[in-house]
Amino acid sequence: MEGVSFPPLSRFAVCCGTHGNEMTGVYMYRHLQKQKVENITVTTILSNPRAVDACKRYIDIDLNRCFTNALLCTAITDSSPYELRRAQEIDAEVGPKGSDEAVDLLCDLHNTTSNMGLCVMYNSSDCVAMHIFKHLKSKITSVPVRAICSDEPISEGYALDSVGKHGLSLEVGPQPNGVVRADNFNVITEAFNHIIEWLQQFNSGATFEGGVEDVYKMTEKVDYPRDLNTNEITAAVHPQLQDNDFKLLRTGDPIFLSFDGETLRHKGRELYPFFVNECAYYEKKVAFILGEKVTVAFPSISVTKN
Amino acid sequence: MEGVSFPPLSRFAVCCGTHGNEMTGVYMYRHLQKQKVENITVTTILSNPRAVDACKRYIDIDLNRCFTNALLCTAITDSSPYELRRAQEIDAEVGPKGSDEAVDLLCDLHNTTSNMGLCVMYNSSDCVAMHIFKHLKSKITSVPVRAICSDEPISEGYALDSVGKHGLSLEVGPQPNGVVRADNFNVITEAFNHIIEWLQQFNSGATFEGGVEDVYKMTEKVDYPRDLNTNEITAAVHPQLQDNDFKLLRTGDPIFLSFDGETLRHKGRELYPFFVNECAYYEKKVAFILGEKVTVAFPSISVTKN
């Protein structure tokens, strides 16, 4: 695979509090105000200040679904959802998405109630994000570091991290909404420092060797069992699946335990579960996500020589 | 210690969803609608239905602080908080508090984000609650079972469990708000069944022997370190204290880790921490509670013979 070169990655945006009750980002935002970084321009954004004040995921709609090209072009009126307005403000500040003016790298900070350690989420086509994942995986030892990749064209991306020229989201957990845990805060602080270090090395002319890495790709979403009449949930995630994100789920393994004590089992092929019993996904009717583990090759990268 | 006798305990109220985002109770409420119990009249209450619908702790004020005699006598107007209205409705249904008409036993179901296993919370003077704690502790083995006792006169109690002739709250965790975990649901189902079994045995004439048990009593509340200007939290609970509820805290043990990396240590005498990093206590300015472990003696009890 041939090496790829990019212009210097000197403008870095860190977005915090995109979901207002995910506290690692909220406290990182305050912490980052005090940090000094050499040779990289770091922009910190408190993405959803009204949701942070209310300690809610969002006020009107999920901000992290608002960054499609279509929504970013929608005219704002008095009745527009608050988050649509914020999406356009953020796009103006660190984008515009898809333009030369967009920041070189955008990192969006999230928490999950699932036992996922540190997850780097990015688009498969973004080899800068791939290299940053590889770097974080080699440096961070306190929690497992994994990658979840999307194959969606970046132009169709709806997440905030699609606004930068390169982008990734960091998910760390488990952590209840509304709570800050020191262990998770330390993981994100460490990740931030390693990303800065990587960007400085890249801009200084280092070549980062290509290779292969295992990443996860979503194949399906699994809803909770529900009562046919009331549509209410009739089972919780099974204790053998709870907290076992990324542990291979085999045909016949327990997945739900009904409130009446009945065990429901996985009927499909072998896949990896993640976002198991994530709080925010109840309203999205997702008990857990299933995905494949795939090995992806990526090229060497270095800064463009003048 | 002389034995004590009580009239039969045949009217049992189970209150669920007193905090609308503590999901074990919310799902127990639905589950209990389908249960049949012999010789005990079980009343199930969904305490705060509007907060349950909104998946919030409360709408206007914390319902579980509304059951003082003073608040239960306050005239309701159009501008009264929703929870004050609900408190009076619940008091009418399973009280009135302090009257002969009140249910014989009231059990209020709660979750905590802290690693507290199953905690039975009740008033020290209530020897029926003490015996139920002893029974649950002897029967439930999947999680630690502990008691937190209050010495406050029942007449001054503000919690929902003060409405019954006898009362207790069950706290189970850790569990994020808005999430139901099968392990915690099973603990509460088991506790419900053991309480019913105990009530049936008591009413059938069994004598429950007195004895001594260790329980915890709150001595102080500890707030997070805060910025003097902004009043914002400047530290998280230290990783060595996080998840270590009920592990003796000694002078000099780490209690907080500041976002700048500084460790703060416990300066007082040896005490037991609980409700460590409980989500709902951020707004109450409580990072954790400290208490003593004390051994309490309690009498034999049996049903009054006619």
Automatic annotation (TrEMBL), chains A, B:
One GO CC term on file: cytosol
Residue positions binding Zn(2+): 19, 22, 110
Keyword Zinc: yes
Catalysed reactions, semicolon-separated: an N-acetyl-L-cysteine-S-conjugate + H2O = an S-substituted L-cysteine + acetate; an N-acyl-aromatic L-alpha-amino acid + H2O = an aromatic L-alpha-amino acid + a carboxylate
Record keywords: Cell membrane, Cytoplasm, Hydrolase, Membrane, Metal-binding, Zinc
Succinylglutamate desuccinylase/Aspartoacylase catalytic domain mapped to chain residues: 11-195
Main location (coarse class): membrane
Cofactor binding remark: Binds 1 zinc ion per subunit.
Alphabetized GO MF terms: aminoacylase activity; hydrolase activity, acting on ester bonds; metal ion binding
Active site: 171 (proton donor/acceptor)
Ranges of residues in domain AstE/AspA barrel-sandwich hybrid: 214-292
Coiled coil feature spans: none
Places the protein is found: Apical cell membrane; Cytoplasm
InterPro entries: AspA/AstE_fam, Aspartoacylase, AstE_AspA_cat, Aste_AspA_hybrid_dom
Family, similarity comment: Belongs to the AspA/AstE family. Aspartoacylase subfamily.
Name the UniProt record assigns to this protein: N-acyl-aromatic-L-amino acid amidohydrolase
